[in-house]
Each structure stands twice: as C-alpha cells, then as structure tokens.
Design goal:
Helix content of chain A: 55-70%
Radius of gyration of chain A: 23 Å
Oligomer: heterodimer
Number of strands of chain B: 10
Number of helices of chain B: 6
Structural class of chain B: alpha+beta
Number of helices of chain A: 16
Strand content of chain B: 15-25%
Shape of chain A: globular
Structural class of chain A: mainly alpha
Number of strands of chain A: 0
Largest sheet of chain A: none
Distance between the termini of chain B: 57 Å
Shape of chain B: elongated
Order of helices and strands of chain A: HHHHHHHHHHHHHHHH
Strand content of chain A: under 5%
Order of helices and strands of chain B: HHHEEEHEEEEEEEHH
Amino acid sequence: MSTAVADVEAHGHHGPEKGIRRWLFATNHKDIGTMYLLFSLVMLFVGGAMAMVIRSELMMPGLQFVDPGFFNQMTTMHALVMIFGAIMPAFVGLANWMIPLMVGAPDMALPRMNNLSFWILPAAFTILLSTLFMPGGAPAGGWTMYPPLVLQTGDAFPYLIFSIHLMGLSSIMGAINIIVTIINMRAPDMDLIKMPMFVWSWLITAYLLIAVMPVLAGAVTMLLTDQFFGTSFFLAAGGGDPVMFQHIFWFFGHPEVYIMILPAFGVVSEVIPTFARKPLFGHDSMVYAISAIAFLSFIVWAHHMFTVGMPLTGQLFFMFSTMLIAVPTGVKIFNWTATMWRGAMTFETPMLFALAFLFLFTIGGFSGVMVAIVPADIQYHDSYFVVAHFHYVLVPGALFGILAAVYYWLPKWTGRMYNEKLGQIHFWLTAIFVNVTFFPMHFLGLAGMPRRIPDYATQFTDWNFMASIGAYGFGVSQLLFVYVVVSCMRGRGEPATAEVWDHPKGLEWTVPSPAPFHTFEEPPRIGAAQTFS
Amino acid sequence: MIRRLSLCVTGMLAAAGARADWAINMPRGVSELSAETYELHMIVFYWCVGIAVVVFGAMLVTIVRHRKSRGVTPAKFSHSMPAEITWTIIPIIILLIMAVPAAETLIRIEDSREPDLTVVVTGYQWKWHYTYQGEDVAFYSSLARASSEARHRGSGIDPASVENYLLDVDKPLVVPKGAKVRLLLTSNDVIHAWWVPELSIKKDAIPGFMNETWFQADVAGVFRGQCAELCGVDHAYMPVVVEVVEPDAFEAFLDSEREPAPAAITDGSAR
C-alpha cells in the first residue's frame, strides 16, 4: 500500500518483494511501520472486545454474563493488550514510518533488528492470548501482577512472564533503533534542538524505554523464580517483601505511563502548528518540558502506593514530586494554546482530535493533580476515580494522539485523502462517547465504588449503566475508523498532493504522496521552509 | 441515525433513573479527618475548576476567533520569554498553596498515638477477621447471607430487592463513638485493602506486614465499605461494615462477645 513502484524503478533500485516475503522479511521502515500500525489496530479491537465484556457485565448490578474469575481475566488482559499491544506498538509504528521521513534518513539505522522487534510482537501476543484457553484461565491478578495474588495464577503464569519478556525485548530493540536513527542519521544541517517535536518526543521516550523495560523484566523474573525455583523475593514467609515488588513495578510503571503519552505530545505538537498555520510556540521550552517530565517520571513511582503504609516523609516526598509534574505539563498545554493564538485555524479531522486531546487530556491532568494529594488519594486510590483518571489520559490522551497522527499522515502513507466527512463523524462520535463512558466513572469512584469488581452495590447502578452505553457507542464508532483507513489503503479517495495540507512544515512533506518505497537516498538540505525554531 | 440513537439512550437513561441515586461526590464522612479530607478534595477540585475556566476559556476564544474562515492572517510569533516564565511560576505558586494544607492533614492522619482501642484486622480470601486487643474478643466478618444468595449468576434474585446488596456482613466491626480506634492490619494470604469511605480510611492488609491506621467516629451509625485491593475471585464480596455505637452499648457488645466462647474456639469453628 505504501509504495509507488514506478517511482522506485525510475531510481534504478529494487522495489519491495512480492507476496508474503515482503512482510515476513521486511527491512523497509515503511513496511515495518505499516505492520506495527495494523497490528496495533487489531489489538485495539481485541482489547476493546474485552472492554465490552467488562462493560456488559457492569451495566446492571448482579452477574448476568460472566463469572467473577473470568471478569478478572478480562480486566487483566484488557490492560495488558491495550498497553503493550495497542498503544505502544502504534507509537512505534508511527516512529518507524515518520522518524526517517522527518529527519531525512533513508531508513531506520538497524533494519534487520527492526524486523525482529516487530515479529516478536505477534508471537508474544499469541502466547499471552492463548492463556485464555488454558486450565485455570488467563492471568486474573491485574496487569500490575502484584504478588502474592499473581502467584495464584494457573497454568498461564509462566506464559504471562514469558510474553512480558518478549514484549520488553521488542520494545528495547525498537527503542535502540530509534535512538541510533535519530542520533546518527539526521540530515546534515539538522541540529538536535531543531528536530521536529515528534522526533524529540520519541528520542526521550526511547531512552525511557531502555531505562525501565529491563526493570520490569527483572521484576517478573523474580516472580518466576519465586513460583518455580524456591526463592522468596516477594514472599513474607521466606523473608521476602511483597511491597518491594510494587516499588520495582512502579519504578517501571510510572515512566511507562509517559512512554505512552510523550509521543502523543509530539504528534499534537506537529498537528496544531499545521492547522493553525503558525509555528509551534516555544519549541525549545517544549523540549525542556518533555525532558523534565521524563526526569520526574523516575522519582514519583510510589504515588501509586499511598495506601501500602509508607513513612510520613516518604509520602510527603512523593506527593510533592508528583505535584511538580503539573508544572512542565502545564507549560506544554499553555504553549499549545499560544500556538493556536492568533493563528488561522481550520478544523480538519487531525486538528479536531488534537483539540479534543488538549481539552480532555487536561481534564485527566486535573484529576492527576487531585490524586497527588495524599489525604484525598487515600479515598481515590483503587476506586473508579482512578479508573476515570487514567482512562482520560490514555484514551483521549494517548489514543486521540494516535488517531490524530493517523489522519494527519494517512494521505502521505497511502497517497489518498481520507473521506473528510466520515473522519469528522468518527471524531464527533468518538469524542462524545469517550466522555459518556469515562466521565461518570469519576462520580462512581468518589461515591465509593472500588475498581476491578464484577458486581456492585445498587446505588452505583445509574452511572455504570451510562458508562456501558458510552462504551458500546465508543466501540462501534471505531468501526467507522477502520472503514476510513481501509478505504484509503485500497486506493479510494482523492489523490493526495505531496504537501497534503496547507503548507505544513517538515521534511516528510517534501516527498511525494504516497511516500516512495525508498526516500532520502541523498540526504536532503533543510530549506527555510522546513525550519522549526 | 444519530438522532434515533440519542433518543434511545435518553430513554434508557430515564428508565435507569427511575431507581436513581446518581451520587456524584465524596462523602463528608463522620470523623474530623474525613471532613478535613473532604475539604481538601473540594479545595483542589475548585482550584482545578478555576484553572479550567481560564485555560479552556482561552482555548475556546482562540478556536472561535482565530479561524481561517474569518479571514484572519496568521501571526508569526513563536516565542515569549515573559509569557513562559509567567505560566511556569503561577502553577508553582498554586501547587504550593495546595501542598501546605495537604501536608498538614497528612501529618494528622499519620499520628496514631494514644489510641483508646486497638483492633487487629486480618484479611482472608475472602472475609475479614477482627481481634479486639486485650479484650478476648475476636470474630470473622463475611458477606451477609442475603447478598451471598443473590450474587450468583442465575440466582433469580434481583439485587435491588436485597437490602445493602454486597455491602452487608454477618458480623460488623463494632466500635464506640468518639473513641480513637487504632487498626493494625495484616493478611493471611494475599494483599487486601480495608476501605470505609465515610471514615476516610483505606489501608492495605499485607501478609507478613503490620500496617497501622486509625479513626475516630463522631457519629453513631453503620458505615459501609469494601475491600479495595484486587484479591482474587471474590474480591467484590468481602465488604467492610463498621457499626459505631454509644460507649455503653459497646461495653455490652464486648460482654456478649466474651461470654459464649473464648476467642480461640470462635476462631477455629468459624473457619
């Protein structure tokens, strides 16, 4: 879908391989990017189907469809599939496609490793999803895998650990590839600080990945040896410490949260200037803000654990460090607003998703400040308020960032304009239903509904009913997205120009649409049209 | 189609509203600290609303005014040091204003000295066990029978017909009004969390650890909560119920609990 064979032949180079070999042995960053994106789309629907099971069961009090054990499997698997299968691979796919095009490189620096890091993922998720059919069922102890509960997992346990190892391996290799590409393969006159924001956000994200994925690998390996080799890292009876797992897990887990949101920041920083027809406000301070957020992500982990019983000074430290995150995040929100200020905006689908991101991610940020306040968090912790908070930053945050990126660059990938009308309908349905689904969860949590329960006291009925309706609407709306994307891939729609939009900045708009199989074989010169700061 | 869908949704919501509760906020609770926590929650919430009005207001103004269809030409500016310093400093000041009362309340929450009564709370899959220290009183507290019968799939019992569905136990924790009750929490198997919103208490019960928290209820009554940490299949079915009674009634309760059997035997038979 991503190639223009004629153009490639004109350069006297080989085109893509034919048939399955093209994908199985892919080393081209565009092909691998496409596979990552399609894989994440499939996983979005797998994880979404699990969300539908969850919301169906929670629509009414009492158990109607599933038993509590299966319900717990669904919440656990929904999280694992969405985080490691949908959001992260989607951003890696965007990185694969766009980073070489944005820095003027011919391909990713390590194309064969790129192939491996993608093809590990289908294997990892086959293993993970196969646990649904094992004796004892899929993992049901929550995606956080807290011991001792996770050690009660049935036959699925070693498969869970092994699939996490594989996902981590894939992420680390992908991250190394991205860093090497950005550091070594930029166009000659592109200074680091002048790089596009999407590239910047991914550079920092990649370092976060390298820093924390091994920590997760270590944590789950210790679970494995506790289960099978008689160690007691996390077992109190053997002198171990179950809380230590939580510290290690969240030392991975909090940077992980930013791994899922920083590339979305990058996307929004690309989209808003294009449709406001005005340069990004405070480019350099945006870079510093992302760096500050990345640094802070390493010193806030225990805010996930305010009820485990930490010393007072520890709680105070993690409260203050967590509140600090609001400062660089605020700078980003204000800078995006200043970018729009006195611009000349139009509201195509990518811009609509970017604007919804701005509003709704900020709501997630507000509830983020609230959960930082320890006395109040003692009430919010493990309630639906937290569920509302992290879905606001992950769905209208990370996912809307991905959707904005797909609509923004889809014409560049496929050479076709997507159907703008359908795109806007998709946007409005998605934006409305996301709020119908997740806003009531704030109320449920404050009123006292714990998370991860299949059944609830009857006073929680109304908001749960509303959330379930919203979830169905949200799920169905995404079918429209698939239709829009597949139409472009199959070559329907108006042919797109090289620029696609109204004089966007960036090297990716200097190559034809669709982007030829090989681009920037000669390093490009960055003209005045492509400068960023 | 959208109109029909929205009509349909409104209709269903109206039907659901027939047995409405629609609670939207944290309870103020029945202790000094729960009220303080509630106030803190509201202060931070109002700050967020205030910031939202300013930030979303600016976004809406620019979305309405600075659009190409109004024939504007885009400005060219892309830096402003004073503006960026301003919107770095102001959030820091606001955060400091929030941090001070939060820290004060937290320090009070952590001060569990000089309790009037100490109860050891042990989490089990899936019930709670309470031991009144120095009183020779101990018992299990499990999901009440009415909820237990209605909770299964295909039970044929409408949860709405069960009083306090999933929030009722066979034997609640009974404590005296106005007394400082210290809880020592631990677990027998996996991690649980003891949560009563009205008392503003949530603390993990961790195997091999002894966690400490406390409350002082100023109002007599029955206060309900649930296990808040995923603890396995029946995580949703181990509620916490605290009955706050007048001191005289509490003494009577202790006497009645002591008489029938020593704690150790109650322990064995209940399991």
